[in-house]
Amino acid sequence: MKHLGEIEFEGVETIRKMQQQKLSELLLYVSTNSAYYKEVFRQHNIKIENITLDNLNELPFTTKDNLATHNDSFLCVDKSLVADYVTTSGTLSDPVTFYLTSADLERLAYNEALSLQCADGSKKDIFQMMTTIDKLFMAGLAYFLGIRKLGAASIRVGPGTPQAQWDYIHRFKPSTLIAIPSFIPQLLQYASERKIDFQSTSVKKIVCLGEPVRNADFSLNELGKRITSLWDVKLYSTYASTEMSSAFTECGYGNGGHAHPELLILEVVDDNGLQVRNGELGEVVVTTLSVEGMPLIRFKTGDLCHVHYDLCKCGRFTTRLGPVMGRKQQMIKFKGTTLFPQIIFNVLNMMPQIELFQVEVRRNEFNIDAITIVLPKDLYSDSFEHEISSLFKSKIRVTPAFKFIDTDELQQKVFKADKRKSERIVYI
């Protein structure tokens, strides 16, 4: 099979030339077919023939509010050409519908095949999918299509119980799991309790979605260390969103997720909208390329990542993103300290006895937050509360409040039937 994404190895200038051509095609396409961008270009007196990669910042940002308010105005084709409907997860706002044509589904398959190949995947692999493929969820669909395009095999278990996962691992012998990483410790505890020899199974790799397993310096975070200390597997981080219809996935060197420049133009910007320098933190902004149904121009994801422009050891001349540190909307101000949810999760993951939790954030009229960690009541003891309080104090210099409730009640709060993702943090 021909190596996908060969242009990523061909140098910065070759990539820029390709992206400039695709940008010009995109601007002509949306100025003809998108009611939303037609109006934006008219209001801002945009002459699309004057826009290049160098002055892309002359175009206004597209925001999540724009998408929610003008959802169908972004659609560039007649609805009779829509082949699949997906929606955003609605983590911090109402879900937005995305309309995918047959060409968009092929692009999605190419993206995920490229991403899995970046994560040392090949047609020889068998991938066990532990993620939802239904409920209008793009990720599961993308992985399935990508595995097919890669020429590999998939086991579509979905987010099943540990028992179901181990049954299929033993039966079909997958080489790679695709999973939310916080589920893996539960999987391993189940195996340990039932004397399952997980070290001798066929699983060698885990493609991790939805949660980071690395710190900003690319070292494994507490969750990543917990997994690899128990199980001799290699972890690959991936970052994606429905809006960009593409993913940033680590190569074997684990130095950030690689952008796929044939699929999007990436910017990482500061609070003033200016491009940040190598290694700095900024908001991820994407312009989607070769999307037929709902292309986006300078879409602000709200996600904050460190960006890396230097050449990776794998030889790809592509921009890389570090783990998502948080979303701008999720920034917490607590007792004079600015926090992101992942910092709190990292501390909780340092205590292996904590398998289930929810972080409650209450914000007052002065934008000052109060944090309560909700935990299963069977963990409670004076010594445990002292231990966890001391751990927070030593790691982030502040201590939240703690609340202990029935495990079943907490399970229902975290894993709601009408939600596709677990709610490990809620804003009240």
CATH hierarchy class name of the largest domain? Alpha Beta
By CATH, the architecture of the largest domain is named 3-Layer(aba) Sandwich
Query: Which structural class fits the helix and strand makeup?
Result: alpha/beta
Can you tell me the overall shape?
A: globular
Total domain modules: 2
Helix content: 25-40%
Number of strands: 20
Textual characterization of the structure:
It contains eleven helices and 20 strands. The chain has 428 residues and is of the alpha/beta class. It folds into two domains: 1-326, Rossmann fold; 331-427, ANL, C-terminal domain (GMP Synthetase, Chain A, domain 3). A hairpin with a 2-residue loop joins strand 15 and strand 16. The model has no long low-confidence stretch (mean pLDDT 93).
Note the topology.
Elements: H1 12-33, H2 35-43, H3 64-69, E1 84-87, E2 97-100, H4 102-118, E3 126-129, H5 138-150, E4 153-156, H6 162-172, E5 176-179, H7 184-193, E6 205-208, H8 222-230, E7 234-241, E8 246-250, E9 257-258, E10 264-269, E11 281-288, E12 299-308, E13 320-321, E14 326-327, E15 332-334, E16 337-339, H9 341-348, E17 358-363, E18 369-376, H10 382-396, E19 401-405, H11 407-414, E20 425-427
Parallel strand pairs: 3-4, 3-5, 5-6, 6-7, 17-20, 18-19
Antiparallel strand pairs: 1-2, 7-8, 8-9, 9-13, 10-11, 11-12, 12-13, 12-14, 15-16, 17-18
